[in-house]
Amino acid sequence: GEKSARAFLFEIGDTVLDFAVITFPALWAKVTTLPLGSYESVRPGTRIIVVGDPLGIEDVVQKGETFAKRVPYFHDFPKWKWVVPYDVNSVGGYSGSPVIDVRTGRVIGLHRGAILDPRGSGRSIGLFVPMELIARILATYGYPIDYDRPVTAE
Predict the structure, then answer these.
(1) What's the pLDDT score for residue 116?
(2) What are the Cα distances from residue 89, in Å, to 28, 62, 123?
(3) What is the 3-state secondary structure (H, E, C) of 43-59?
């Protein structure tokens, strides 16, 4: 019989923020990664894309943009406490997908979920976890990552 080798290591996972670190040692040299960016360096109205597998359809690209005005994190909603809303119509299957700044090609966050329009229009607002928060969490587990931090004046 034919054997399928799936040599990977599950390193860490966070079910609240909906991401995991999985390493594939045998494939590492063959993998192309996306550069990481910073949500704080993104301007309001920045065009973004999200690549995911909604409803079981592979590699679907959804276009959207960051809100024209900075929207605060949802501190009043415990489930969405650490997420940033953005304008993209989302359905199931995008969770954990990279949110990419079209201009720079950098990942500014990971898609976490969506809020559906209560009026029944079928539209939704996407929610993502900013790369800054993911970087802080990964560092606490011993995975420091370098991402494009915004330049600040001293």
Answers:
(1) 78
(2) 33, 8, 6
(3) CCCCEEEEEECHHHCCC
